[in-house]
Amino acid sequence: MEKLLHYVWKHKMFPARPLLTTTGESVEVIDAGLPNTNAGPDFFNAKVRIGGTMWVGNIEIHDKASDWYAHGHDKDKAYDNVVLHVAAETGPDIITSDGRKVAQIRLDVPQEVSRNYDELITTDHYPPCYAIIPQLSRLTVHSWMSRLQAERLEQKTDAIRQRADRCGGSWESALFVTMARNYGFGVNGDAFEAWAMSIPLQSVAHHRDDLFQIEAIFMGQAGLLEYDTIPEPYRDDAMKEGYFDRLRKEYQYMAHKFGLTPIDAGMWKFLRMRPQNFPHIRISQLAQLYHSRQSDLSRLAECTSVEQLKDLLRTRVTPYWETHYTFGSTSVKNRKSISDSSLNLLIINTAVPMLFAYGRHRHDDTLCSRAFSLLSELRAENNHIVRLWEQCGLKAENAGDSQALIQLKKEYCDKKDCLRCRIGYEYLKTKR
């Protein structure tokens, strides 16, 4: 209930009756104040007129007035600037640590708001607010989608910044780790990030011109150059071919030289996965990309269009993997270039967030603006989340929209955080 009281106060969804203190003084809310997400009073710098006197200060909200004492606010100087106490159930006088009596009002949650909130939280049909989506104005939808898109980029920026910190401040390494994570395309994302973090790029860079050595290091660090990682039916063929042994010997030399320790090969997932998405194929593609130096941050920052980014990120497997999906298993000869749809996802999840994050780091508004422009150029993603919202009346016109809809589902709908959602707000104030 307290969470809903906060919401009612923030949006001034007050009942039709006049607001009165427990002593009968009239209350007019001029400014509800700024929500406080940290310790201390719930709202800062509110403006309320109580009995004809204007008060500027903080607001504290509780289910019960007695919570003021249960939470120890009467002994906490941080609450001495509270000018109004709001509660669903009033009770004892509210006294601050300096002995001042605080005005108090009882606030009811409007019946329709309470009923609508219960529907949002308890309805099984997903998303529960779908009924009002077709009624929303284009301005409301556009402003909310823009906000969600920016939120998602900010989240990815935070993740990239943390990777840069873990990489000793190297943004070049942070790009490599981010790229690797997204080569996992969800299923193997965690494994690819752990793998990329295990590779000392500064040391490996000395061998960057030798593709075979790079592939040996990459495969070895993935734990895929151990005999027991080769599926039993293909083990003999892998031994006869000799490529596995050559990579293994090269990796053993490099591992001794650089003190390398591979990740646990058990981290990789293969179940219900298309062979072109097997870790071996993706690692080979990354080895080719790293060897070509196409994925350097300086080159990425120079790209101004989607096509330039596609040319930069386009890669293929090394020769052995043109006819294999794992060691020893032969397949129809295929160049196994990365697909156009995969390129789009890499641009959305790697290139665009990296440009935005790096732009923030360098205080370069041009890079940040370019990130948003690129999202508007790219076609919308086609996944179950985007299709679901389209059924509800929210159609993604471009990748910026689809990113916004993914953010809406993951950060609001899945968490039942309807009180922070613009659509939830519209639903809550609906009168039926």
TrEMBL record:
Superkingdom classification of source: Bacteria
InterPro entries membership: DUF2851
Name of this chain's protein: DUF2851 domain-containing protein
UniProt organism field: Xylanibacter rarus
